[in-house]
Every structure is written in C-alpha cells, then in structure tokens.
Amino acid sequence: FFEFIKKFSFFKAVYYSLFHSVSAFCNAGFSLFSDNLSGFKNSFLINMTISLLIFLGGIGFSTILNCYNVLRKKEKKLTLTTKLSIGISVFLVIIGMIAIFIFEYSNKNTIGNLPFTQKLEASFFQSITTRTAGFNTVSISGLKKSTSLLFIILMFIGASPGSTGGGVKTTTFGLIVLGVITIIKNKEYIEYNGRKISWTNFNRAISIVFISVCYIVIILFLLILLEPDINVMNLLFELVSAFGTVGVTRNLTPYLGNMSKILLIVTMFIGRVGP
C-alpha cells in the first residue's frame, strides 16, 4: 500500500494492495498491470513484500503451523517435512538467484541495464516467483536459453506439499537428492538431520517424478505435432509453467491453437491436483 499510494488514489491503492497480496500468497501470479510487476522492478518494498508472501504461501500450511507451534512452545521440534520444505526452498531460491544473476548480467532485454543492487533484487525476485507464483519484473520472452532452461527446472520442482503452489514439490526433490547421495556413499539408510527416512518414501518420490516426466514428454510431443512452427524450447517452457501452475509465459499461449490451449488447461488441472 505504501508503494501504490505514491501512484494511485487511496481506494485504488487499497484495492491493488489487497489484490496483489492475495495473488502473491496464493501463488496465483495474476497482476492488474499489463506488464505484470515490471513497472515496480526498482521498488525494494514491492520486491521484498511480494517475495515473502510467495515464500510463505509456497512452503505449505502445515509447515507454517509447525513453525508457529514451536515458537509458541506447543510443539517441541520442527518436523522432518518442515525442515525439508524450508531447507530445500531456501537452497533453490539462493541457487536460482545466483544463476539468474550470472546468466542475465549483461542481457539488456532483462537486467542488463539495471544497477548492480537492482540486478540482485530482480534475480532474487524472479528466483522465488518462477518456482510457483508467476509474477515477473523482467521480460520472460527476453531471457537467454540457459536461463529459460533453469526456469523450466525450477518450475518443475515447484512449491512444498500442502501449499498454494504446484510442481512435483520440494520434499520430493529433496528426498531424491538424499537418496542418490546415500546410494553413492553406499549407506544402508537415508538420513537427514539425524533421522532415518524410509526407502518407501524415496521410491514414491521417484515414481512421482517419473510419472510427471512421462506426462510432460507425451504432451510436449502432441504440442510439437499441433504447433510445428513454434520453437520446442518455448513449447516446453509454457507446458512446464502450466504443469507447475506457475503462470509465467514467453508470450506464446495467446497464439496457440484451440487444441493446444485445451492441452495446457488439462495440464494446469493435473499440475494443481498433483501427480
């Protein structure tokens, strides 16, 4: 509100503040501005507030409740799911921010013309919002191919279980990483923070990713047949964005045929229900 009141009337600022706050926490990514939030890429307040709301909405309600109960001393310790959700989320945000900053540093279509600190802000914001929310302060269609591939990976992983976001979930990704490390080290049990994790959970995580990848490959194949003139990377980007219920776009969806749009609609529904 304190940012919007600088540009709009009191009631309009209240309305815009409420709409964008809910949109951010629910990881919807809808904006009332034609350029999404690109007009506020220089605003530290907007970048940090929206990012915090996206993060809270994306880590899951059970995680928030567990943290609250521990702070109030109603529960003794954080659950394994909470630790994984927060740990993996923070890790992906940091890795994503660093990668976006490096890949896009000199790209004038995105952050190339921004001062150093604003480049960091934009990279941080886009790293958070790409996983689940769909807001953008830079041009998505202007991204380099390397950054687009990074976005696809982040969108595929998505948010945490029981959250407002989609994707295969951070805990699924975390379990697979832990399981692979355990196999490489030739250990008998998967361990995290001194606690054992069942191999059954690892197998379930592998199954979720396998089903998801198979679905995306099949739909991508159909989209290639339906849209032979469109770049495969752009098709994959829109498809994974739909599957992760993210909503970022390379400005492609409006120009797709009706059948292709129906496939994306089905993909959004499946991505929200969860594989």
Most strands sheet? 2 strands, antiparallel
Parts with pLDDT < 50 across at least 5 consecutive residues: none
Cα separation of the termini? 38 Å
3D shape: globular
Strand order of the largest sheet: 1-2
H and E order? HHHHHHHEEHHH
Short description:
This protein is an all-alpha fold and 275 residues long. The chain has helices spanning 10-25, 44-58, 61-71, 80-104, 116-132, 145-157, 170-184, 199-226, 232-243, 258-273; strands at residues 190-192, 195-197.
Task: Summarize the structure in words.
β1 and β2 (195-197) form a beta hairpin. The longest helix is centred in the C-terminal third of the chain and has 28 residues, at 199-226. It contains ten helices and two strands. α3 crosses α4 (80-104). The model has no long low-confidence stretch (mean pLDDT 93). It has a two-stranded antiparallel sheet. By secondary structure, it is mainly α. The chain has helices at residues 10-25, 44-58, 61-71, 80-104, 116-132, 145-157, 170-184, 199-226, 232-243, 258-273, and strands spanning 190-192, 195-197.
Task: Give the helices and strands, then pairings.
Layout: H1 10-25, H2 44-58, H3 61-71, H4 80-104, H5 116-132, H6 145-157, H7 170-184, E1 190-192, E2 195-197, H8 199-226, H9 232-243, H10 258-273
Antiparallel strand pairs: 1-2
Helix pairs in contact: 1-2, 2-5, 3-4, 4-5, 4-6, 4-7, 5-6, 6-9, 7-8, 8-9, 8-10, 9-10
